[in-house]
Predict the 3D structure of the following.
Amino acid sequence: MNQMYDSTNSRSADGHDIVMQGRKIMEITGVKQVESFDSEEFLLLTVMGMLVIKGENLQMKNLDVDRGLVAIKGRISSLVYTDQSAGDKSKGLFSKLFK
């Protein structure tokens, strides 16, 4: 997974919106940080919490750090908000593997 950016200080708006066009293109505003991403999953910290986007052949189409905007293309299958931070998710995975 690739590490991206932290735009906490550079965001100009605190709103959070998701616009999806036909499950193929998604634009998300209010993104504070891109925690990680690959072709099957994006993990985004938004002003409304952690957002997990899953699908197939996912790619970052656009990234605007100043506006906290991320655009993703690919076949989107799910969007889930979690209460876990990215560090908690990784810790949980490792603790399950090494029980």
User: Anything to note?
Assistant: Residues 3-12 have pLDDT under 50 and may be disordered. The helical segments are 86-97. The two ends are 24 Å apart (CA to CA).
